[in-house]
Amino acid sequence: MTEHVKSYYAASANTHAPFPSLDEQLECDVCIIGAGYTGLSSALHLVEKGYSVVVLEAARVGFGASGRNGGQIVNSYSRDIDNIEASCPPDQAKLLGSMLFEGGDIIRERIKRYDIQCDLQQGGVFAADTERQLHELKAQQRRWQKWGNDQLELLDKEGIRQVVGSDRYVGGLLDKRGGHIHPLNLALGEAEAIRSQGGRIFEQSAVTSIEPGQPALVRTAKGAVKARFVVVAGNAYLGNLVPELAGKSMPCGTQVIATEPLGEERARQLLPQNYCMEDCNYLLDYYRTTGDHRLLYGGGVVYGARDPADIERLIIPKMLKTFPQLADVKVEYTWTGNFLLTMLRLPQFGRIGHNIYYMQGYSGHGVTCTHLAGKLLAEALSGQAERFDAFAKLPHYPFPGGRLFRIPFTAAGAAWYSLRDRLGV
Ligand SMILES: Cc1cc2nc3c(=O)[nH]c(=O)nc-3n(C[C@H](O)[C@H](O)[C@H](O)COP(=O)(O)OP(=O)(O)OC[C@H]3O[C@@H](n4cnc5c(N)ncnc54)[C@H](O)[C@@H]3O)c2cc1C
Asked: What residues does the FAD dependent oxidoreductase domain cover (predicted)?
């Protein structure tokens, strides 16, 4: 049995009944591999449209990045729309631009419709360490306003000091359409919503093979599912199940700590409005306070998803750089999780043959885009593929160096960007 990784989220998860493991032969319209947000959002949109759906999860619902992440509802994609506008035909860029803020809206709609208790808070801030980053945030504000987000506020040095108890930043951009959630409780709530709509979820049911065909046959150790469509949603935890996908992305680990509860007063000295924060560096820090007033602080990237020898040694200095006043605070939880990086830092959606679909590679910013992915997948299977295809047409480049050398190559690239951030150029 593979349980949730020991984290603050697992320790504070809402009570939930486990799902059975698959030990029979089933038939359905759509078989989904993976119960993270990509798989869950797909399943929920599909059952709402009347499809019969089976979700197969190797471990537990939210076992992967979806149950371990920073909980930040970050709008747009991991690479912003200017990059897409510069490289895509205008019609495709227009469609992708029109979806920039939809993922966050989907999350809020799910929380409301299914009454999911996951500590939803409004507002997220991008914090600038340097004038160059602040200049870029001004451009981002213009771009996002152009695409319909009128809830943005640029913060100067004084302004950002009002939203974070740190002298570190020169300014920032507040997005009131951003926000944060308890990510595992969101995943668990979505799984319950699927169950309530007649969808079937199986945990401890790792998929061992997919036989293409009409129907396709998806096998686990003790069962099998015949399905008209298959959705591959294993992201950074997929391994080599689908060789076509393995070479064009790279699992990366990022680490998180949660302090002891600080008490409401001390937590509000750090983040008075309870916004979540991320900085603008390539290897970024992200942090927020939790429902029970802990500081949850993440950062660092370990390419190739190796476990760091000591997460505290890696993250505590980052936390103290931002909040030196926390030197006396104890850390109660540390964990690591994998996200999936792509060469372009844009998500990869597509089809293998005509009835195996995949969505993956959100490159560190996936809370909103995974929710959008599920909606677009359900549209595509019901005959409206235009918006899914706007993503599917983005190029999927393999990492240079192949499976052997992609880690050192990418780590060297990251080191360069990180140096650039530190120099402020
Ligand atoms: C530590 C961390 C912090 C992050 N913070 C943020 C943040 O604050 N904001 C943000 O926007 N993004 C963040 N991200 C990224 C975001 O969490 C991910 O992009 C998103 O959760 C990916 O969801 P997913 O469903 O595609 O993948 P996952 O959540 O990883 O789910 C994949 C699932 O597939 C299952 N699976 C794999 N192979 C098989 C198989 N063969 N059979 C059955 N099941 C299988 C896995 O067990 C897993 O449960 C963070 C990521 C990490 C790791």
From this structure: 29-379
